[in-house]
Each structure stands twice: as C-alpha cells, then as structure tokens.
Design brief:
heterodimer, A: 116 residues, Arc Repressor Mutant, subunit A, three-stranded antiparallel β-sheet, 5 helices, B: 162 residues, alpha+beta, seven-stranded antiparallel β-sheet, 33% helix, 32% strand
Chain lengths: 116, 162
C-alpha cells in the first residue's frame, strides 16, 4: 500500500517527541513556555527546582525532538515552543478520544434502545 | 495541551439510573463496548475482558470480529453508585504479540450527572505520559492501517453495488 512508507516515517518521527515529553522537568519547561513563552534561560530557571545547567540540558533535548527552538537576543537565547510539533504529540490522545467517541455512540444507542 | 489526559462529555437521552446500569453492570457494559468479562464489576476486582463483537452496531461488530477472543486486563477502581465508576486498563492494547502486563495502566473515569432531558456523562482517561513513548508513537501507524481497512470496506461496498 502506498501509504506504508509515509506511516513508517511518521512513526519514526513521533517517537522522539514522546521520549522528550516523558520527563517531568521537561514537561514543566514545555508548560512554562506554553503559558508565558518565549522565555530566556534565566526566566526559565527562575522558580524551577533545578539548576540553569539542567534547564539548558533539558532544552537541548526538547530542541533535538523539534519541540522548541531558540533565537539569540543580545547576550541571551530566547526559547519558544514549536507548537506544530507539539500538536503531533497530541495526536495519540486524539486517536484515543476518537475511539471513545465510537464507544460512547454505542452506549447512546444501547441506552436509547430499551427506554423503560 | 496536556498529553497525559483526555476528557469527553456526552448528553445521553436516558435517565441516570439507566445509564448507571449500562456502565456499572459488567454484562451491559460488555454489550455496547464489545467485550465479555470473567466476573462482575466489584471495586478492586481484577478481571479479564475478551473482545466480542458489539450487539449495538453491525458495522463496528464487523471490525471487532477479527479481534474476537483477544484478552485484556481490566481492574475495577471505584464504584460510587449512580455517580462514578472507574477502572484501569492498558490503552489501545491491540498490537499482536505485545505483552502489556508490565506496562503502566491508564485510569478511566465515568461520571454521571442528572440533567434535564437525560444524563450528562463525562469520561476521562489519564496517565498517558507514563505509557512508553514507542507505544504511543505506534498509534500513528495503527491509525493508518485502520483507515486502510475502512477504505477497503468502502471499496468492497462500492464493488458490490456496481
């Protein structure tokens, strides 16, 4: 089937996204960038329970997965989310949600069928 | 933008008692979902569900038939009569040859509220961030083969009509 290579490529491309998100510290960084981004490393380290060095390391991991990117602004790097890539991470949940849509439609038919 | 949790709300045109029965009784749950359990729903019970084609939708039943008999783990979490029912399972555990037993489970919660004209059902599933990345990524290709199967079905249907 002609879709196969595309599916395989998508699969290979999605795994790093989930791997990068499978860490509490990195998820927190993503959350902060989502709520108040773009942000500098200084700002990202403020209020974090980890060192600036650790934040930098996590940002690199997120960058490798294509989830964030940075721009130089004067002496600092400003980090921002790549929302399109993040949306790919949501697709798994979208699919689970679609499965539930189907199940709930059956539940509706089931409870409607024998009104009593 | 959570990758850990999803939630759905649906309005069902049936009294709360009817909906409660449909989700909290193992046999009735099985009828619409398309599964047969080896015991009743009791808080804390570890059950095995086996896929059986749903009696509610012939088209869906056809798609479930190839998976008939496939077993999955189902742990009843809490039962609060008429208001809440929850359980744990392995999400999207459809890959043949994969042993999901050692992997973390997600928590599914059904919550009921009586509203005018029926019952508001909210269902949430959470804990996806603990599911191995490779497993989650796999859903991409699984989705594609699902569509391929659908396309085949439509093709067969059209061929019959000509």
């Amino acid at each position: 089937m002609s879709r196969k290579p595309a599916a395989a490529a998508k699969l290979a491309g999605a795994a790093p996204v989930f791997a990068a998100l499978g860490d509490t510290a990195r998820l927190r960084i993503v959350q902060r960038l989502c709520d108040g981004g773009p942000l500098s490393i200084t700002r990202l380290t403020e209020g974090a329970q980890i060192s600036r060095q650790a934040v930098t390391k996590h940002l690199r991991a997120l960058e490798d997965a294509g989830l964030v990117r940075s721009d130089r602004a004067g002496r600092e790097r400003i980090w921002e989310l790549r929302t399109k890539r993040l949306a790919e991470g949501r697709r798994y949940l979208d699919q689970i949600a679609a499965e539930w849509d189907g199940a709930l439609a059956r539940l509706r038919t089931f409870v409607e069928r024998d009104k009593r | 933008m959570s990758t850990d949790r999803m939630e759905k709300t649906i309005m069902l045109p049936a009294p709360r008692a009817r909906v409660w029965e449909a989700i909290s009784d193992a046999a009735q749950f099985g009828a619409w979902f398309g599964v047969r359990f080896d015991g009743p729903f009791v808080a804390g019970a570890r059950l095995t569900g086996r896929i059986v084609p749903t009696s509610v939708d012939a088209e869906v039943a056809k798609l479930q038939r190839p998976h008939e008999g496939k077993a999955f783990e189902f742990i009843v979490d809490r039962i609060e009569p008429m208001s809440s029912f929850s359980f744990r399972w392995h999400p999207y555990a459809v890959e043949p040859g994969v042993d999901y037993a050692k992997e973390p489970m997600t928590l599914v919660v059904f919550e009921l509220a009586a509203v005018q004209g029926g019952t508001l059902l909210t269902i949430s599933e959470s804990g996806f961030d603990q599911i191995p990345p490779a497993r989650r990524a796999k859903a991409f290709s699984a989705n594609d083969s699902g569509w391929a199967a659908q396309t085949r079905l439509i093709g067969t249907y059209l061929a019959k009509g000509s």
